[in-house]
Amino acid sequence: GCADGSCVIWDFETRGIAKELRDNDCVAPITSVCWSKYGHFILAAAVDKSLTLWDVVSGEKITRVPLQQNTLHARLHPGSSRPTLCLACPLASAPVLVDLNTGSTTVLPVSAPDTGNDSLPLPRNKFADGSPPFTVSSASFNKHGDLIYVGNSKGEILVMGTNDRNVKAVVSVPGGSVIKNIVFSRNGQYLLINSNDRAIRVFENHLPQREASKALDEISESFEELQYGEKLKWLGTKCLTFFREFQDSITRIQWKVPCFSGDGEWVVGASASKGEHKIYIWARSGHFVKMLEGPKEALTDLAWHPLQPLVASVSMSGLVYIWAKDHTENWSAFAPDFKELEENEEYVEREDEFDLMPETEK
Q1: Residues 6+ apart with CB under 8 A from 251
Q2: Are 182 and 138 contacting, i.e. CB atoms less than 8 angstroms apart?
Q3: Distance in angstroms (rounded) separating the CA atoms of residues 32 and 2
Q4: Number of structural domains, the chain?
Q5: CB count, 10 Å around CB of 240?
Q6: Checking CA distances to 67, which of 75, 130, 137, 249 falls within 20 to 30 Å?
Q7: How far apart are CA 49 and CA 29, in angstroms?
Q8: Do the beta carbons of residue 78 and residue 64 sit within 8 Å?
Q9: Which domain holds residue 267?
Q10: Residues 42, 35: contact at Cβ < 8 Å?
Q11: 146 is a domain residue
């Protein structure tokens, strides 16, 4: 996404621009882009409070939906080839479920109600219990899109159905701090949480990949004797369990735009400090692997290639940096008698070494 409202698709094979998507109605900077499941569509959110769905092949604008607030993150529903739903996360209000066909929006609950009626309307920018509005909203679909995971400022993850928007379970995150990001691994087995207490946490998903909402309802029906609030928290333990925590215990920096690698084996996070372009990589098992350091400018976004060991980072200046593994050539693997040199060496030949008929043959 560009500052002039356009979206540019870059081809890794040709190392050039493959397509440029431009809308005359949108000249505001793009804040978020999201590919559809099969790569046929792109959703772009802009500073002018709009969402635009593009057809990648034809370059045509399919629909444009105006919203009430600027969208920080927008995610397409992953369960269909032609998505009709998306999640929009504004900067300072509750996440919104948007119907791209009709333009209708549904504000998602950000706090579990104390009673059994979790369909009560929420006050604008406030929790159901009347507490002050929260600062950051975060939400994500699960792998097949039948559940939505919403994070709030109380350090809770609310698990709700996409169709009915009813809260089905509540998961308490250690630390109880504001949840800034929620990201699923590509295989749907792990969930990554970025909290305001300077820690990235990974949870293991115990629900089935398909029909997770139905499975959660079946578990809920078997424990009707629990009170509603206790039941939601108990069901939360059946959804997610805490797996690992990542942080820099020395500098205690804040994190931004964390994500998984394509295979889910690695966790990557960027420093949120101004004037730093630092990317930290951990193995999912917990140990720190490497830090990638770029130019002295803030990092705004980060993405890991779904199949290759490549990381793309965006700086405040608008430059996109591609990080790849530094491959060392090993010619001795092809020619066992090949001798590798650390530096240039001057070779002194014999006096008759390059003669047509060396003295030894005369």
Answers
A1: none
A2: yes
A3: 10
A4: 1
A5: 23
A6: 130
A7: 10
A8: no
A9: 250-328
A10: yes
A11: no
In a domain, 311, yes or no: yes
Q: Which structure tokens are listed for 117?
A: 């009626």
Q: How deeply is 216 buried, as exposed, middle or buried, from its count of CB atoms within 10 A (0-12, 13-18, 19+)? A: buried
Instruction: Give the tokens for residue 226.
Output: 């629990």
Q: Which of 301, 304, 300 is nearest to 284 (CA)?
A: 304
pLDDT above 70 coverage of the chain, percent: 91
The single-letter code of the amino acid at 63 is T
* β-pair partners for 304: 311
Secondary structure E strands in 68-121: 71-76, 85-90, 96-99, 105-107
Element (H, E) at 241: strand 240-246
* Contact (Cβ atoms closer than 8 angstroms) between residue 290 and residue 282: no
- Answer whether 235's CB lies under 8 Å from 168's CB: yes
Using alpha carbons only, what angle is made at residue 139 by residues 133 and 143, rounded to the nearest 5 degrees?
165
Scanning the structure block, which residue is given the tokens 């706090």?
111
DSSP states along 332-361? GGT-TT----SS-------TTTTSSS-GGG
For residue 30, tell me if it sits in a domain: no
DSSP states of 153-171 as a string? TTSEEEEEETTT--EEEEE
The backbone torsions φ and ψ at residue 199, rounded to the nearest 5 degrees and listed phi first, read -135, 145
Q: Are 67 and 88 in contact (CB under 8 A)?
A: yes
Contact 257, 271 (CB under 8 A): no
Residue 323, domain member (yes or no): yes
Kindly report, residue by residue over 272-306, the tens digit of the pLDDT: 888 889 999 999 988 999 999 988 888 999 999 99
CB atoms within 10 A of CB 238: 17
Residue 136: which pLDDT band, with cuts at 50, 70 and 90?
Answer: low
Q: Does 311 have pLDDT greater than 60?
A: yes
Instruction: Give the mean pLDDT of 139-156.
Output: 92
Three-state DSSP at 218 gives helix
Task: Report in angstroms the alpha-carbon separations of 162 from 96, 174, 181, 200, 203.
Answer: 11, 26, 19, 26, 21
* Exposure string for 282-311, b = 16+ CB within 10 A, e = fewer: bebeeeeeeeeebeeebbbbbebeeeeebb
Q: How many angstroms separate the first and last alpha carbons of the chain?
A: 74
